[in-house]
Amino acid sequence: MSATRLLVLGVVRMLGTAHGYQVRRELLSWSADAWANVQPGSIYHALKKMAVEGLLDRVEDTEQGSGPDRVAYRLNERGESEFMRRLPLMLSNVKDDPNGNHDFLAALVFLPSLDRELAISLLGYRLTALGSGKANIDALINESDRWGQPPHVQAMYRLWQTQLDGAIEWLTGLIEQLRSGDFVMADDPGRSFGSP
């Protein structure tokens, strides 16, 4: 599942019933076009495709009055199951491809949809994977002279190392925030962000 599909499912889940325009407006208010590369056309395409796949139900809008009929969508049981299956995977999975970060950011938006301990566990798994990646980069840097790599390649490794250091520090802080009770999560009293 792509970042766009998870975001669209999550927004429909959160709103209960939504038109494509409402989903688009919500995602643009979060600047998802910038950090998840969500384009307006992909939102409408995702809604229609997930309805065909049986993850969303189409709901005819009877409140439109004299305007053209619009179709609204509602998350069904299958869609809820898919959302709750993909969310943990996208939170914990560290991908090397350029879109991997889009997936993580899309899942992070709906982090409060999970129970606190599950979220901590998933982010801990991600932290371990990032630590392994950091160890690999550290080894590459230490060995790069021996391989005769040009200095600009070593500079690239140092950039990668710095990015991993930042991601590890940030993720460690987020896990500490969750442990200290920050954010309203699915198993806390009150309505968490993204709850239906």
TrEMBL record:
Pfam families given in the database record: PadR
Gene3D superfamilies, per database record: Winged helix-like DNA-binding domain superfamily/Winged helix DNA-binding domain
Lineage: superkingdom: Bacteria
Keywords: DNA-binding
Record bears the keyword Hydrolase: no
A Gene Ontology molecular function term of the record: DNA binding
Ligase in keyword set: no
Protein name: DNA-binding transcriptional regulator, PadR family
Organism expressing this protein natively: Prauserella marina
